[in-house]
Design goal:
The chain is an all-alpha fold. Helices cover 66% and strands 2% of the residues. The chain has one domain. The strands form 2 sheets. A two-stranded antiparallel ribbon has the order 1-2. Strands 3-4 form a two-stranded antiparallel ribbon. 56% of the residues are buried.
């Protein structure tokens, strides 16, 4: 555990720190609790098998952590879960293949999943290629294409754009949600630097909300599902299919969304690097400078998607929710994330364990989501502050304003977060707002790079 010199020491774990076994399990479970709702939600909404998605999520996380430790000598502390950016593409393929959208929680036919897997595998390959390109041209070159005003703004809209979704969960029981939110905040603020308990505010808040729900709103906790669940449940593995009438549509409509996940992944790495280095400074230890490994991080992202595509899981991304958790708890331990990966794999096999986590009431998840999604957004702002992004520069104002309005307004204001601009066969439900906002920001920045404004010609 890292201890700084600011009066009594700073509690926290740097990426290569190894907590004791008991702490590993608790910290890992807290990570799983954080990623579980979103990862399972994407699978249930789009017709993928939930157990398979949890299995692949754990495997992808562990593989990425091991490869980062082996290749650069330090863990890149990120957790890989289902990405929301691909939902529109999945639903368009399912709708085309079955004539309708999947019922929530009901898997679509395996041959449809296999068709979508082809697009996910290609997405992984594209991420790997882009990662190698970035490694070849260097961090400075990618910083020009994806400057902090883009990565920070994209991180902000990912968090703030989910605000209405968080409130939608909370409305299941506003009192429980608000109490869960307040307790989690109090735990995170007043227990910080007060021992190991200070690193478990989200877990403590979730348990407190769960107990309150069981007492005051017993119908919200589905104990019957826990009793009915099998102890052992084998995940359903499917394999990608590169044949059939819809495979071309699936590959194009799914893989093109990598355009959105690349800046998202880059923003997440910048965020976590910023907070890790701050803890290292306070602990009088050498900085990790994880942001120098953008290209390698994208290669790891691509390998994760490739694994997911082979097994029959949704395309993934490194999770901002878990970044928020790490920023709140100051726990950036790679081994703790590996423990979370193991637990996620077990959730894919152990029906009882999955049922327990799945029984967390919606209102409790809503209270946690308000905090975690909000922290994602605030981390985006912190990223821009740390890199001294001037909001007196009209270029930065234009890029940030466009990303914020299109991303937040589109995601909250339109059904499903799809802008009412449809492209038949690719985006029949409309353009995904957050992805479109990211692309618009990149295009605006490219224009300014190609046609340098007079006021900055001598910069």
């Amino acid at each position: 555990m890292s201890k700084g010199s600011n009066g009594g020491g700073v509690m926290g774990y740097l990426p290569n720190d190894v907590p004791n076994p008991t702490q590993l399990v608790l910290l890992g479970f807290q990570h799983v609790l954080t990623m579980f709702p979103a990862t399972v939600f994407v699978a249930a909404l789009t017709g993928f098998h939930v157990g398979t998605v949890l299995l692949a999520s754990g495997i992808s996380t562990i593989v990425a952590l091991l490869l980062s430790k082996w290749r650069i000598g330090k863990f890149i502390p990120l957790f890989y879960g289902s990405s929301f950016s691909y939902i529109a593409a999945y639903l368009s393929v399912v709708n085309e293949a079955t004539g309708g959208l999947p019922a929530f929680g009901a898997p679509v036919p395996n041959d449809v999943i296999s068709t979508m897997q082809a697009g996910i595998v290609v997405t992984g390959i594209l991420n790997i290629i882009v990662g190698f390109i970035i490694r070849a041209v260097g961090k400075e070159a990618i910083d020009k294409v994806l400057p902090p005003v883009i990565t920070g703004s994209v991180a902000a809209i990912i968090g703030f754009g989910l605000a209405f979704a968080a409130l939608g969960l909370a409305e299941a029981n506003w009192l429980i949600a608000i109490v869960t939110l307040l307790l989690t905040i109090l735990f995170s603020v007043y227990l910080q630097n007060r021992g190991f308990a200070g690193m478990l505010p989200v877990l403590l808040g979730a348990v407190s909300g769960y107990v309150l729900s069981a007492i005051f709103d017993p119908g919200s906790v589905n104990f019957a599902s826990i009793g009915a669940a099998d102890w052992v449940s084998m995940p359903i593995i499917t394999f990608p299919s590169f044949s059939g009438p819809l495979v071309g549509t699936a590959i194009f409509s799914i893989s093109i969304m990598a355009i959105a996940t690349i800046p998202e992944s880059t923003a997440h790495l910048y965020q976590i690097s910023l907070y890790v280095d701050r803890l290292a400074e306070e602990s009088n230890q050498e900085k990790y400078e994880l942001d120098r490994h953008i290209g390698f991080n994208l290669i790891l992202d691509g390998m994760g998607d490739f694994i997911n595509g082979l097994l029959g899981a949704t395309a993934g991304t490194n999770y901002g929710e878990n970044n928020s958790l790490m920023a709140i708890t100051r726990n950036y331990s790679g081994p703790a994330l590996m423990a979370a990966g193991v637990i996620s794999i077990l959730l894919g096999f152990v029906g009882k364990l999955s049922a327990v986590v799945g029984s967390v009431p919606l209102a409790v998840s809503g209270g946690l989501a308000i905090y975690l999604f909000g922290v994602i957004g605030m981390q985006g702002i912190a990223l821009m502050q740390e890199h001294n992004v001037s909001m007196f520069d009209p270029r930065n104002l234009a890029i940030g304003a466009t990303i914020m309005i299109v991303g937040i307004g589109g995601n909250i204001g339109y059904e499903g977060g799809f802008l009412p601009v449809s492209i038949p066969g690719i985006f029949p439900n409309g353009l995904p707002a957050i992805a479109t906002a990211a692309v618009l920001g990149i295009l605006l920045n490219a224009i300014f790079l190609i046609f340098t404004p007079p006021s900055t010609a001598s910069d």
